[in-house]
Amino acid sequence: MSTMQDVPLTVTRILMHGMTIHGTSLVTTWTGEAEPQRRSYREIGERSAQLAHALKDELGVRPDDRVATLMWNNAEHVEAYFAIPCMGSILHTLNLRLPAEQLAWIVGHAADKVVIVNGSLLPLLAPLLPHLSSVEHVVVSGPGD
């Protein structure tokens, strides 16, 4: 008998496994600001599902649409990491350390439909928006300046 798994290893299955087997285990993230955030795998899964539904139902994101993230490595980014691929869309993480003109080119070339941005990074994204013709929506996570 083979030890290979008999189901595809998909992001959805990874998330469901975490929620089911490790549901009460905590995921801790900290960006250096305020206090570390602690959420259980179950909470991460539930919040990921809420984000996926909002992207689909409120913003019209469909499978194969590109959703960019300009975020710190925090709990909200983990939720986006699960939400976007689980709904069949393409997660496009942006490098916040790139110069503005490179970010604009990358977003335009990828034809991102939505950008999810941490509020503290909004000053980096805002000047680019007039040049990003494919971007239909910007979702701000957390407080903005």
Keyword list:
alpha/beta, 145 residues, 6 strands, Rossmann fold, two-stranded antiparallel ribbon
| Main β-sheet description | 4 strands, parallel
State the low-pLDDT regions, or none: none
Reading the helices and strands in chain order gives HEEHEHEHEHE
Mean pLDDT: 91
Count of runs of 4 or more consecutive helical residues: 5
The gyration radius over C-alpha positions equals 16 Å
CATH topology: Rossmann fold
Main β-sheet, spatial strand arrangement: 4-3-5-6
Q: How would you describe what is shown here?
A:
With 145 residues, this protein is α/β, with parallel strands linked by helices. 38% of the residues lie in helices and 19% in strands. It has five helices and six strands, in the order αββαβαβαβαβ. It has helices spanning 11-21, 41-57, 75-86, 100-110, 122-125, and strands spanning 26-29, 37-40, 66-70, 90-93, 114-118, 137-141. A four-stranded parallel β-sheet has the order 4-3-5-6, with helices on one face. Strand 3 (66-70), helix 3 and strand 4 (90-93) form a beta-alpha-beta unit. Helix 1 (11-21) crosses helix 2 (41-57). The longest helix is centred in the middle third of the chain and has 17 residues, at 41-57. The chain starts with 10 loop residues before the first helix and ends with a strand. The mean pLDDT is 91. InterPro entries: AMP-dep_synth/lig_dom (IPR000873), ANL_N_sf (IPR042099), ATP-dep_AMP-bd_enzyme (IPR050237).
